[in-house]
Amino acid sequence: MDLEWHTRFSPDMIDAQQSKTRTIPPEISMAPKFDVQPIDASFGAVVTGLRLADIDDATWNDLHRTWLEYALLIFPGQFLKKDEQIAFAKRFGPLEFEMGPVSNVREDGTLRVEVDPGDDVVKILKGNEGWHADSTFKPLQAKGAVFSAEIVPTVGGRTGWADMRAASDALDEAMRAKIAPLQAYHSLHYSQSKIGHVPKVGTEDYRKLGFAGDENVLRPLVKTHPDTGRKSLLIGRHAHDIPGLAPEESERLLQELIDFACQPPRTYHHDWRAGDVVIWDNRCLLHQATPFDMTQPRVMWHTRIAGDPASELAIV
Measured between alpha carbons, how far is residue 44 from residues 41, 157, 270 in Å? Predict the structure, then answer.
């Protein structure tokens, strides 16, 4: 989801999903109740019974605690307007950018062709099918993101998330000790080069897609969450070249960690419906796009929450 556009938002209306729920007990909060249904994974929940555009501070405080617990919250049928999505995201902190499209639809309404070898946007859409966290290649890693669906294709286009807290917990003692002191560089140019993509330098897409902000920074393989204190793996497609290891050994270890971490019950893939909104904690989850029929339009909207320099700054 490494996109940096700022544009307008105009979702269509359809029916919201229904699900089994549990209610936040009244002894925990005096705020209006909302319902939480944990998903079938080590993280994540579907939240219903509230309108994100209308929540008060007390309700947001309960929602924030729920977010820290589950790391991924899914809100069916919200149909947020542009200003509503931005305002909701700002409750979680300053924004890295307010809103950008993740889409195969150009501004003139035409569709991007998957086989076009010169389309940097298509290359990023394909690259994002690899597991990653947002902005790890920048000096300041993102805190989280709000993501919403306006137009969804009939085939494909799910978004997946993976729980790096549970992955860290599941490591055996030998692997945990091995990676504890290790670090890795993170680069968008590196990750896109793995799929044969060399972006066109100096274009507006070069800036919007995040290449201009790529500083190939160094980050630990294991980080501690600033709010929960839980350890999680910091890996993904942008990570490369662990100092102290030969390139082949570094690549092998990083791939081994992704293969181990990104499997059930630590993964969830969401089947989108128009109007759905999610918010995830980029400090402890990876995510990925999945292929879709690019002869059909797909329009999603991404608002990125900036990281706190006290916890999300790169080492160098």
Answer: 7, 19, 11
Residue 115 pLDDT class (50, 70, 90 cuts): confident
Evaluate whether 95 touches 305 at the Cβ level (below 8 Å): yes
| CB-count burial class (<10 Å; 0-12, 13-18, 19+) for 81 | middle
Name the band, by pLDDT with cuts 50, 70 and 90, for residue 33.
confident
- Residue range 262-299, pLDDT digits in tens: 999 999 999 999 999 999 999 999 999 999 999 999 99
Convert the pLDDT of each residue in 188-226 to its tens digit: 999 999 999 999 998 999 998 999 988 999 999 999 999
Which residues in 85-128 belong to E strands, given as ranges? Answer: 95-103
Give CA angle at 205 (202, 207), nearest 5°: 65
Assess contact for 163 and 171: CB atoms under 8 A: no
| Domain at 22-312, CATH class | alpha beta
Distance, CA of 213 to CA of 189 (rounded, Å): 10
With beta carbons less than 8 A apart as the criterion, state whether 66 and 24 touch: yes
HSE-up of residue 129 (Cα within 13 Å, Cβ side): 13
Of the candidates 156, 148, 159, the residue with the CA atom closest to the CA atom of residue 12: 148
**What three-state secondary structure class fits 49?**
coil
Nearest to 131 by CA among 304, 290, 311, 294: 290
For the chain, the structural domain boundaries read 22-312
